[in-house]
Amino acid sequence: MEAVVFVISVLFASLALAFEILLLARVVLLFTVQSESVLYGVVYKLTEPILAPARFLVDRVFGASALPIDISYALVTALMVFMRYFFMNI
Asked: If 0-12 CB within 10 Å is exposed, 13-18 middle and 19+ buried, where does residue 46 land?
């Protein structure tokens, strides 16, 4: 039973790390390539389903015009770091 829990926790921690890397890639691609790029499109489609609810939450809490930058990236990244820490310490 412990082996199954270990494998599942490592799987979730690895998925969280992969999503962190995708978020970083999206930020870098946002500033370096055209938004019509195929690579940016793929990264966008993989990350937007998680970023959109986070963006909505930030807008509801802080208001749409209160923040000049999109902090949903930081919020989701912090959540992924917390998930990795949690799953690796089960």
From this structure: middle
**Residue 35: phi, psi to the nearest 5?**
-70, -15
Look up residue 42 and give its two tokens: 């793929």
Q: For residue 89, with 0-12 CB atoms within 10 Å meaning exposed, 13-18 middle and 19 or more buried, which class applies?
A: exposed
Q: What angle do CA 43, 55, 81 make, to 5 degrees?
A: 65
Q: What is the three-class DSSP state of 74?
A: helix
At 19, the amino acid letter reads F
56 closest CA partner among 82, 75, 35: 75
Sign of the dihedral defined by the CA atoms of residues 63, 69, 75, 80, in that order: positive
Q: Is 33 helix (H, G, I), strand (E, B) or coil?
A: coil
Distance, CA of 5 to chain centre: 24
Reported as a single tens digit per residue, the pLDDT across 42-60 is 999 999 999 999 989 888 8
